[in-house]
Amino acid sequence: MVLSYGNSAVRFGVRFWQRQSQIRKMSRKIVLCFLVAIAFGCTVGRKLECSEHRETECEISNFTIVESMDLSEWEFPDHPHLAFGTYPHSDDSTYVVTIDKQLADRLQSTEKLEIQNVSLQTMVLWTNLRTLDASHNYFFELIVEQGHNYQLRELNLSYNRFQSIDFVQALPALRTLDLRHNYLESLSFSLFDMATELWKLNLANNRIQTISTDGSLHLPRLATLLLHDNLLSVLDASEWRFSMLHELNVARNRLRYLSMCEVNHSFPHLQTLYMDENRWECGHLNATIRQLHQLGVKAMTYYNKEDEEHCSKSIDEICCY
Asked: Which Pfam families match (predicted)?
């Protein structure tokens, strides 16, 4: 009896410690899951809900998406207008570093996406998306596939880190493209050969030194072209046919002359030309402005005179040397 009792006690002790070990393991798992939940800002079941801050947009905040993250259990709102993050308000709780193909496939019903100031770096584009505002990120790669019928019309990539924009070739429906404040240094306008619906192109505040064209380029709807705050020393528009261009801004570059033959030929309906803060040669600038006046084109200054370095000579308030 004593032996039997002793064996029972031993078995009870073994089961007790096994149970305690299991409890400790489960506790560690619970703590780990809790920490993961905190890190990723997700709720039980990983169902993301729309915030009540906006009326027509589904705003999602307080979550994180990083590379190689399994999103198979996540449930995203089926909404035509999604907004990741709370921009322009400060939001330190939302990070969407990448939108991979897995996530892009799950967002097919979304036609408009706002994803500003969430540290986005790369993104796979889906065909149904029509408007994308991904400004104020670390964005450097928009992934497209040739042969897909992309419907993207409005694209804002300002304040990012793009050095190349080859993706433009796959976006024939583009109407507006904003690439202000990126890292572009050279650009081939031949990329826009298929973008015949484009009416506004903003390339300001980059580092563009050269713009080239492989043969004639016809953009029949382009009305506004913004090239100010770059490093252009030559603007060769001899192959451009921008018959509807009304506004051209080349302020704050390094230009010395502008060919009036190209203005007549490439921009026949030009109305406003911003020219200040370049390195214009005075004799050529004087002749150019006289011809612009004859064509009814306004030669304008884009920046306040106080912002411009002092110069000894100017024509129509435009500095020359």
From this structure: LRR_1, LRR_8
In angstroms, the CA 225 to CA 268 distance is 14
pLDDT score at 244 = 97
How much is the mean pLDDT over the chain?
Answer: 87
CA distance 308 to 145: 45
pLDDT in tens, 5-15: 344 443 434 44
Give mean pLDDT, residues 105-134.
97
Cα separation of 192 and 74, whole Å?
Answer: 37
Report the domain count for the chain: 2
The residue ranges of DSSP E strands in 62-178, in sequence order, are 64-65, 81-84, 95-96, 98-99, 112-114, 122-124, 131-133, 141-143, 154-156, 176-178
**Residue where a domain stops, chosen among 115, 143, 171:** 143
Is position 18 within any domain?
no
As a dihedral over the C-alpha atoms of residue 157, residue 161, residue 165, residue 167, rounded to 10 degrees, the angle is -70
CATH assignment at residue 244: 3.80.10.10
Residues 112, 188 within the same domain: no
Q: Which domain holds residue 197?
A: 184-320
pLDDT (0 to 100) of residue 91: 83
In a domain? residue 229 = yes
How far apart, in Å, are the Cα atoms of 113 and each of 80, 133, 137, 192, 228? 8, 6, 14, 23, 28
Dist. CA 261–CA 301, nearest whole Å: 22
Q: How far apart are CA 293 and CA 38, in angstroms?
A: 64
* pLDDT of 39 strictly over 70: no
pLDDT tens-digit map of 138-164: 999 999 998 899 999 999 999 999 999
